[in-house]
Amino acid sequence: MKSRLAIVAGLLCLALPMLADDDRPTLNIDLHSRVSFMNDRVGNEIRHDASGFKGDYFFLIANGQVDDHFSYSWRQRINKKIDRNDMFDATDWLYVSYQADRHWGVAAGKQVVMIGGYEYDRSPIDIYTSSEFWNNIPCFQFGASASYTTTNGKNRFAFQVSQSPFNIPQHRDMLAYNAFWGGNFGFLNTLYSLNMIEYSPSHFISYMALGHKLNVGNASLELDFMNRAASGQTFMFKDCSVMARVDYRVLPQLSLYGKFTYDVNRAEKEADKCVLPGTELTAIGGGVEAYPLKGKSDVRVSLSVAHSTGTNSNPAGTMLDDQTTVRLGLVAKLHVLSWKK
């Protein structure tokens, strides 16, 4: 851990002189962490290996402006082991963006694969109950993207070419083609995508992801639908997922949430690498979040309960039949540094 932090500090020291030569460079550094105490049971049997105290996530996040056009963003998982064959394995993203004007922008580096939906868009630190799809999609890949934002700022369209989330060492050149739309219409927001993803050389699976978020007063509802299909199978509803989350801020320092997920794959083709054929899983969860710092949500204490039922045909899958998980968690999102020349 000490050597990893020393490497991070060294990289930041190298970055500062580079930034100092530009027009108006900025640097922001944050640390995000979540620790939990878990009770995980299948039926009446406790899963000892999945229970007890657990350090879930520890993120280092650095981002800022180089000048009026160039910006950068970097998120590193400090507590994730780095594979000797992939030095970027613990790097969620590391990319540079160029904003030509108020409409057009491009970016390149390791990015989030542009797949729609609000569950997919949330930071993992903020998710307690998740779909089987979310648990199995390798969503950070190298690629490049171009985006266009409309004059009123309500619509953002993007196209991205990236490594396939399912690339393998023998085929690093497998690709994904992603078209994305994000809409902001006040009480209604959208995150839509159409994706063509290579799951084996020259074979593609398509995603249609439709994410919606409704905001009404102190309440919000996120509703996602994702359909997945490959050549030679029925396109709609045979292989799909539904995710829904409702949040209600009862008091300034207290909120309640509920979550529902449903994953099913009745296709016979071995194209879906996230929800395997023969899987049908339902999960229901809910809980309470408390914010001990008045007027801030940087520190959060949560108590959540989730229960899943159904069949998971993936031997290495995350969700199990008749599984109940109780989680007491502490989240800290700490702003460490803001620097501007």
Superfamily (CATH H level) name: Porin
- Main sheet properties: 16 strands, antiparallel, barrel
SSE pattern, N- to C-terminal: HEEEEEEHHEEEEEEEEEEE
Structural class: mainly beta
Strand order in space, largest sheet:
1-3-4-5-6-7-8-9-10-11-12-13-14-15-16-17
End-to-end distance, in Å? 31 Å
Number of strands: 17
Radius of gyration, Cα only, in angstroms?
21 Å
CATH architecture: Beta Barrel
Uncertain ranges: 1-22
How many separate structural domains? 1
Mean pLDDT over the residues: 91
CATH topology: Porin
What's the number of helices? 3
Write down the overall geometry.
globular
Q: Determine the strand fraction and express it as a percent band.
A: over 45%
Commentary on this structure:
With 341 residues, the protein is mainly beta. It has one domain (2-340): Beta Barrel (Porin). Helix content is 8%, strand content 57%. The chain has 3 helices and 17 strands. It has helices at 2-20, 118-121, 132-136; strands spanning 26-42, 45-46, 52-65, 70-77, 91-99, 104-112, 140-149, 155-163, 175-185, 188-200, 203-216, 219-230, 239-251, 254-265, 280-290, 299-311, 323-340. It has a 16-stranded antiparallel beta barrel with strand order 1-3-4-5-6-7-8-9-10-11-12-13-14-15-16-17. A hairpin with an 8-residue loop joins strand 12 and strand 13. The chain is globular, with a radius of gyration of 21 Å.
Brief descriptors of the model:
3 helices; 8% helix; 341 residues
A few lines on this structure:
It comes from Hallella faecis. The chain has 3 helices and 17 strands. The chain has a single domain, classed as Porin.
